[in-house]
Model the fold of this input.
Amino acid sequence: MATTLVDTNVLFDYLSEDSEWFEWSAAMIADAAENGTLAINPIIFAEVSVRYDRVDDIERALPSDYFIRAPLPWDAAFLAAKAFERHRRRVGMKRSPLPDFFIGAHAAVTGMTLLTRDARRYRTYFPKLRIIAP
Done:
């Protein structure tokens, strides 16, 4: 069974019932769940948590029996740093890797598919990554 890492933007669409993207995001989440396992990592959990006041609230919004909690592998942190280094050479100086680099590297290192609405950066820095995107 395939595991799909669900990016923050898709979760925001789904949880907020975004008028433009809710239907697509809900359908893709349902399809990925039907065909395998859904996952989030600590980076995604942190990004989504910004919209909640208590940890219990986010745990209800993203139940662990539906969205497994996938730890970020050390190899993914290394790959994120290398992708960020390439990015920094292209666009200028930033001091720390953006969350997308950790998310993309995590999916790449563990062989997960990434469900996202913002595939451009992932395709640029993780060209072999399987991506579901509009």
About this structure: The domain at 2-132 is CATH 3.40.50.1010 (Rossmann fold). The two ends are 23 Å apart (CA to CA). The longest strand covers residues 2-6.
